[in-house]
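Bench notes, afternoon.
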Amino acid sequence: MYKFCIIGKNVNIRISPSSWTDKKGRYSVRLSVCVMHRRYNTTIGVNMSLEQIEALRADYNNEPYDKSKAHPNHRECMKILRTFHDDIEWECQKIARGEGDVEDINFSALMAKAKGKPGRKSPASRRTPSDVWLEFLTSEKHRRDLADTTLDNLRGFLRKLGEFDPDTTIAKLATLDGVTRYIEWCVSKGMSNRSAKNQHAYLRWFLRWCFRKGYCGNDFERYKFDLKTPSKRESLVVFLTMDEIGAVESLELEGAMDLSRDIFLFQCYTGLRHSDVMALRKTDIEDGFMHLTIRKTGTYIENRLNRYALRIVEKYMRQPGENLFPFLNMNSVELYLKQIGKLAGLTQQIRKVEYRQHEKCETAYKKYELMTTHVGRKTFVVNSLDMGLTATQVIEYTGHSSIQAMEPYISISRKKKDEAMNVWDEHGSRKNEEEEIESQIAELTEKLRQIRKGK
């Protein structure tokens, strides 16, 4: 009897009566909203008979109905539904343009607006992080052109804030005590010191935005993160050798596994991040050169592709679509990469160092367990250094922000270490050779003197 009302390709609304009635036997009008697999239930705030609800549903679907059986406030209810309908459709259009995510839609606020009762903003002293979160995400996404993974991390940070203290206000959180309590809570939940440091970075980012908006003070800046994290020497840089790349490339794969492997190998041969690979269009590649603006730093690069990368380009140039690679989100790629690494025999034991409070912890992993999309970028950097490229030259290909960002890779490049030690070996051999030549010259000089003396 009550069917779905289609709004868009990924959206539907269902109008139905509630499971309970009031004293007069009337039902509350229930709306079940589904937007891109996210569900939300609400009511329009009016009780009706089943016939009146059916008349409302039919009118909403542009179907004929008996006006004599309609509710006295039928027209007002229709206005609420249409406004709610249009606002959801507008939010979906913004998502399609890449200006937000379905998780950012505030259905409660849209329904309040449709009823003519827009929610009032809380005074600055009572605002909570959830009150301004959508404003923060929208503002920073456009200002910084945030990648999807960064947005996911920010949403995860907000969930942790909710677990920490659902009722905390921004003003209370933006104090030295508020930040200290949050970091102590993160550590108490079993986070490593590095993860807690990342949480502090997200919190400081959010609070600095709030400070610029006038939502809080800047007492939080007094907090200094002092928990020990792995040093550069202890930091783990996972990369593949050329032999391991060959093992991955030689696998017989199909479907999403094959696509994941090709995306990863393209990163190994170009040094691009996953977000830049997914944004790469076929028109960005011309005459063997790749023209691209790095999404994270805004750096423009124009690099010649090596023959390994061109071989992958030729494979996907023939496929339909504007982008070089069909879209595959990072989580799916990384899931497949671990399976691919296992099939390729990447079972080398790697020890990862972490600190939890003041305790140093070492955990052994097999290399395939640590396979991520960023391993492809690290692979390009380390192998390029091993092949003789300087750090400055590698930066021109990868778009790293500074030479300091290359230090972990330079320290791990075995070939560079060996070449550095060869300088000492060559210096010592040259010195011995010079001494030997000088000795031979002295002997010949003495023989020549004796010959001349004999004459």
